[in-house]
């Protein structure tokens, strides 16, 4: 009987262990399923899905694009060796609207191909008080900078070109003008978005015969147009997008069918190629009437570097590795450990450990590092999880903050960055010259994180981590990006350029001289008191880094979307707690039952013995009662016999009778 009880105890213990394990795993499985559902929702495989609609058009989420410019207060003194004095103008705020058109999937629906149009609309209400993007500031002239770069090829022609061209530009904005300078008076709109009818480029068309050495080198003259580039293009028409891009971009769709759940919106190709190339030598002439700048032939994925160069495309950086396209976008971050939680192999310990990471104590931490592709600098940059700003939360939902990785992103001068920079630049400065075709350099706003020696030379900058840090806030369980702040500053390096004075009878001047002002400019020798470009065969480390302006692009998740996310997370947690409580209670009940059976192993045998004793007692009672009945019967029979004998005796004494007995009684 004891064996049967032990079997019951074992059964209860096994059931208790089963529910105990499920109490441990059920919340993790709920969390894992939630993350898979989120990843599926972020998939772009269905055109009727919300993720697809949000990806192709920001009809609901507002995106703001802010620009600020440094207004130089002492441009002439800078050329004589003084430190720059600047005043920040802005921010000038634009609403950013994007739309991806002519979208199509590849055969396996693993990639989505598209053209992307971005339109920027100025919003005076969100901008600085009384500001308009037509405000005129003193800034660096990008066209003048490029021509100065090639002044050693044709110094006389460049000298006249700048005198004549800058005079026309000054007249355009009603500014004074006296000599050649890399600085110019421009509106914020023209400086940032570019402009048509640039006076310097118009002059270049007039004296092109004298600029032959420069024309074979400069991308501005190869375009044969009057379009002066800015730092960004406002794609006001789809025709402009298709003309400038030529080929479609593409991203992974993130479909589960292809084993890439959670990797939606991850950049895989850039204008049809796996590496970033820029149009350094336009092959398609500009269209002045339609205001479409010159561009290169549409890029083809199968081109190697030599073939791409023949069509005007060159690597954005020095090597294929540095120019490769990788990293995700700032719209969705893959939830941590999502694709590990599959019982497809490995040890039981490994699988349980993978699930354990989804428990409440672990699941609120995102990955340590992220790699995001930033089109403004033509490369991916690293972000690291940080607690420098403390714990971040919104609507009670804990968030993870990722900031620009200081040791990876735009840290120059080390072995890793050489292939990007090509030249040794100061710490915190990224060389974009090859990528954009102009001597430009990228930093954080106000030279934040740049070598302090460089910061000290600029009067009027105030680096502030709170205002100038680059970061994004992520809800790690869903991968939802709650807030983004992409901040980038453009700078230029100024060197000493020696431009000779021209005589009045110089053939370059001829009869094109419009007035004495240009004649005086052309006759004056331009020899500034600035560092030379080269020192001991290397780029001069003492070159003056001059800030131009910076952008701040980003968004905050709408409050209603954040509310929905908080409710979804709360529902998942509540369901997980219910499952945990139910499984834990059942495990506890069966554990108590098992403990009871194990603690009283003889109770069942005792009960059976007790019943046996009772049975024996009953039997004895029955036997006693039978004996009693038998005795009673014997006494009754004896009494009857005695009575019979008595009667017979009486008869014998009164009258003798003869009795015939056939056979004796037994």
From TrEMBL:
The keyword Transmembrane applies. InterPro entries: CD36_fam (IPR002159). Residues 637-655 have a biased composition (Basic and acidic residues). The chain crosses the membrane at residues 12-30. The keyword Signal does not apply. One of its GO terms (molecular function) is scavenger receptor activity. This is Uncharacterized protein. It comes from Chrysophaeum taylorii. The lineage of its organism: Eukaryota, Sar, Stramenopiles, Ochrophyta, Pelagophyceae.
């Amino acid at each position: 009987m004891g064996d049967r009880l032990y079997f019951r105890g074992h059964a209860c213990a096994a059931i208790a262990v089963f529910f105990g394990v499920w109490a441990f795993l059920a919340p993790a499985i709920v969390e894992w399923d939630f993350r898979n559902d989120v990843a599926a929702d972020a998939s772009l495989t269905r055109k009727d899905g919300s993720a697809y609609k949000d990806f192709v058009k920001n009809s609901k989420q507002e995106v703001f694009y802010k620009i600020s410019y440094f207004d130089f207060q002492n441009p002439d003194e800078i050329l004589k060796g003084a430190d720059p004095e600047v005043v920040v103008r802005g921010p000038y705020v634009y609403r950013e609207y994007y739309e991806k058109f002519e979208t199509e999937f590849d055969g396996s629906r693993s990639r989505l191909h598209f053209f992307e149009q971005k339109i920027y609309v100025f919003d005076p209400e969100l901008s600085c008080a009384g500001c308009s993007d037509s405000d005129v500031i003193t800034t660096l002239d990008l066209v003048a900078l490029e021509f100065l770069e090639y002044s050693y090829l044709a110094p006389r022609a460049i000298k006249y070109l700048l005198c004549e061209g800058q005079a026309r530009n000054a007249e355009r904005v009603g500014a004074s003008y006296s000599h050649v300078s890399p600085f110019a008076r421009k509106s914020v709109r023209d400086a940032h978005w570019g402009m048509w009818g640039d006076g310097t480029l118009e002059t270049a068309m007039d004296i092109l015969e004298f600029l032959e050495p420069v024309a074979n080198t400069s991308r501005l003259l190869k375009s044969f147009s009057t379009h002066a580039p800015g730092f960004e293009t406002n794609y006001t028409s789809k025709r402009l997008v298709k003309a400038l891009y030529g080929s479609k971009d593409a991203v992974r769709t993130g479909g589960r069918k292809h084993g890439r759940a959670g990797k939606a919106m991850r950049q895989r190709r850039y204008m049809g190629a796996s590496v970033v190339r820029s149009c350094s030598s336009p092959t398609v002439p500009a269209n002045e009437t339609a205001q479409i700048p010159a561009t290169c032939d549409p890029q083809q994925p199968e081109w190697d570097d030599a073939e791409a160069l023949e069509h005007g495309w060159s690597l954005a950086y020095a090597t294929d590795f540095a120019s490769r396209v990788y990293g995700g976008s700032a719209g969705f971050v893959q939830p941590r450990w999502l694709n590990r939680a599959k019982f497809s192999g490995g040890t039981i310990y490994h699988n349980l450990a993978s699930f354990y990471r989804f428990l409440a104590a672990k699941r609120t931490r995102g990955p340590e590092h992220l790699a995001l592709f930033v089109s403004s600098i033509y490369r991916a940059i690293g972000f690291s999880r940080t607690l420098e700003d403390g714990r971040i939360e919104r609507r009670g939902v804990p968030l993870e903050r990722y900031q620009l990785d200081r040791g990876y992103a735009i840290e120059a001068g080390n072995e890793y960055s050489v292939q990007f920079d090509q030249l040794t630049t100061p710490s915190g400065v990224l060389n974009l010259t090859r990528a954009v075709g102009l001597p430009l350099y990228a930093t954080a706003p106000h030279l934040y994180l740049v070598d302090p020696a460089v910061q000290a030379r600029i009067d009027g900058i105030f680096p502030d981590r709170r205002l100038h840090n680059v970061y994004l806030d992520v809800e790690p369980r869903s991968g939802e990006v709650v807030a983004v702040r992409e901040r980038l500053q453009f700078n230029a390096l100024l060197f000493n350029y020696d431009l000779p004075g021209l005589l009045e009878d110089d053939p370059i001047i001829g009869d094109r001289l419009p007035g004495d002002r240009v004649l005086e400019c052309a006759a004056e020798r331009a020899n500034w008191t600035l560092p030379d470009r080269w020192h001991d065969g290397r780029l001069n480390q003492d070159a003056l880094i001059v800030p131009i302006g910076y952008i701040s692009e980003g968004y905050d998740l709408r409050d209603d979307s954040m509310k929905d996310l908080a409710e979804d997370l709360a529902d998942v947690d509540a369901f997980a707690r219910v499952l945990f409580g139910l499984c834990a209670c059942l495990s506890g009940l069966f554990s108590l039952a098992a403990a009871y059976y194990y603690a009283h192993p003889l109770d069942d045998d005792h009960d059976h013995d007790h019943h046996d004793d009772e049975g024996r007692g009953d039997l004895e009672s029955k036997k006693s009662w039978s004996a009693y009945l038998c005795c009673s019967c014997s006494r009754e029979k004896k009494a009857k016999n005695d009575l019979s004998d008595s009667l017979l005796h009486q008869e014998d004494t009164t009258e003798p009778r003869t009795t015939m007995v056939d056979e004796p009684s037994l």
